[in-house]
Amino acid sequence: MRVEAAENPKHDPIEGVSLDDARSVLRSATPGGGIGLEEVIRTFDCDALHADEILRALAVAGYIEPSDVRGQLLSWTLTPNGNRLALEKKRKRIDPEKVNATVLELIRRAKIINSDPDRLQRITLKLFGSALEERDDYGDVDVSINFHRRQLPVEERERIEAGLRTRQSDHDRQTVMGLVMGAELQDTREIRAVLKKGLPYLSLMRDDPMELGIPFRWLVDHDIDMDAARDVAETTFRPNAPSLFEQTTRELPPVSLMKARYREMAPMTKVSVEGLHIGMEDAPRLEEALWSPWVTDEGDLVPNDARDDPCVRFAGFQHLCPIWKEQIGGVLMLKRALEWCDQNKVWLRDLVPMVSISRGNRCNVIRLGVVGQLIYFEVGPTVQKGSLMPINRTRVSKIDLAGAYAVARALSKMYFEARCAKLAACSATVFLPSVELERLPDFPSLARTGNFKEGGFAGLVRAELR
């Protein structure tokens, strides 16, 4: 399949994926800029087949491309458009008057910066994106910024650099970049802060519209040799050169999903737990290891050899009990998950149906069961983790892990539905069979009304604010 660039709207549409969903998965990219099946599965709660379809749709739309790194599982890197979408903040829409006011204020500030004798750099600004068009409302104001070093005598440069270094943070002074380029970095940081202050809808980007091949209008230009402002015209430039995406036609691999070589097992088959540790956070990683191809040193895609990893044979276990995918409240989800465990003779059916929550500075945990026989999970804004391995048992099957995963997701949902994170510190115990609600009530609201206590709702047997 060949990927061609679309026209040049700010964000090209993606087949089968909303821009908001695409932004979420692009933001999950590792620091090196890579995403794979694991990140998509984690973001969309989908299986590997659907995750692969999403990755290919993102590639066709020009947001990602196959990584050229070899000797690892296939991954994808963000393109310039992918980075732009990932970095874009979601805000309420603004009217044309707000856009115009933002642009005028930005120009005013830029002119002050470009006439400041205590700056190492001058800046040029180009307006691009939706702000060039006539619309009823806008998402933000996209501006390309370029920094240009002033041509200064040695004494003048040293004077300016000395002043900038006095404003460096202690941490910055201790870094290699801070020691080598500290003054210039501080100058850049201060300039961006001056431009951005009080302008929440302004997006300053280092992307050059000329290189991207997209229309733009000059806002501020500067003659570096003369250190003087250049006049700019109210003209929208439309580059003749094709965009980066039109210049380079990228090849998508014909197939980007290959089942690994691994030791396959049936869902009900039980194996020894010795040497195994599988947590709820591992499910996407295992599915990626099962389905993502390996990139050889020659650049070929071959099935991943996972025969030495005893955990990969459990990959995809979470889909055997799909109750956690249902659009229902956490309490009802937990009850159904435990019923499923009972029907499939999963060990969690033996746990006392008591849910306990602990919320504190260092402890954010939700548990099912009682001391000595319980399963518990750590939950937070960016983490949901905990062991799915059976307690006091020597063998485990994919069905066991599926039931434990569904219970884990239900418990996490209960924690978030109760908005426990909005309380500084609290603990609560709920007897599940007595709860008549589909989801836990809002704990902060109960606390404000004095009902965060035993009997505050049916099934709440203990509650404490600490």
What would your notes on this structure say?
The chain contains 14 helices and 21 strands. By secondary structure, the chain is an alpha+beta fold. It folds into three domains: 1-88, Winged helix-like DNA-binding domain superfamily/Winged helix DNA-binding domain (Arc Repressor Mutant, subunit A), CATH 1.10.10.10; 96-226, no CATH class; 332-394 and 411-465, no CATH class. A six-stranded antiparallel sheet has the order 18-17-16-15-20-21, with helices on one face. A five-stranded mixed sheet has the order 8-7-6-9-10. β15 and β16 form a beta hairpin. α2 (37-44) packs across α3 and α12 (330-343) runs antiparallel to α13. The longest helix has 21 residues, at 176-196. The chain is globular. The model is unreliable at 1-9 (pLDDT under 50).
Name its key features.
globular; 466 residues; five-stranded mixed sheet; alpha+beta; Arc Repressor Mutant, subunit A
Structural class: alpha+beta
Q: What is the count of β-strands? A: 21
Give the distance, in angstroms, between the N- and C-terminal Cα atoms: 59 Å
Helix tally equals 14
Q: Average pLDDT across residues?
A: 90
Strand order of the largest sheet: 18-17-16-15-20-21
Question: What is the gist of this entry?
Answer:
This protein is of the alpha+beta class. Helix content is 33%, strand content 19%.
Topology overview:
Elements lengths: L1 E2 L15 H9 L6 E2 L1 H8 L3 H13 L3 E3 L5 E2 L2 E3 L1 H8 L8 H19 L6 E8 L12 E9 L4 H12 L4 H5 L1 H21 L5 E4 L3 H4 L3 E8 L4 E3 L13 H4 L2 E2 L19 E2 L10 H9 L2 E2 L5 E2 L27 H14 L10 E6 L4 E7 L2 E7 L4 E2 L9 E2 L1 H20 L8 E6 L11 H6 L11 E6 L1
Parallel strand pairs: 7-8
Antiparallel strand pairs: 1-11, 2-5, 3-5, 4-13, 6-7, 6-9, 9-10, 12-19, 13-14, 15-16, 15-20, 16-17, 17-18, 20-21
Helix pairs in contact: 1-4, 2-3, 2-11, 5-8, 6-8, 12-13
